[in-house]
Amino acid sequence: MQATLLSILGLALLGALHAQEDIPVQADFQEDKFTGKWYSIGLASNSNWFKDKKHLMKMCTTVVSATADGNLEVTSTYPKADRCETRNSLYIKTEQPGRFSYTSPRWGSKHDIRIVETNYDEYALVATQISKNAGTSTMVLLYSRTKELSPERLERFTQFSREQGLADEDILILPKTGKSSWEER
Question: Under CATH, to which class is 23-173 assigned?
């Protein structure tokens, strides 16, 4: 019985690792074109954190800048209650252009981040596999250079999120907020 359970868990882990390797990365990724200000238009995740907080989430801004050593400094500013909150992350480049790693200093989780597709001046689709002691989760982000994005891009985000095994209730187009100071950052 125990051997059967271990076999099933092993196959599930192998399947998850194989699925992670199947996530594409933007061909000929150009870091300098990816930098700048983005709006987070869509977010999809099967994490417990997302399920607990998704009803509170709103569109936020993210500024991506390149560091001298080729990493990405990612600063996200979002509304929280009656104030703005900012979160800084350093995405460490890997040998594959368009693929980065990040370890959360707060939670200890490891993130495998892939820029799946982008045309740099309109949208970007980003997939992240998150590993923690409690297991793994998937997150997909849809970035836009403006607060509006075509229905085709929104549908592509939804379709890609489903391809990553996310259910419809795990997919959210983030509601816009009124003009506020966090948007200026």
Answer: mainly beta
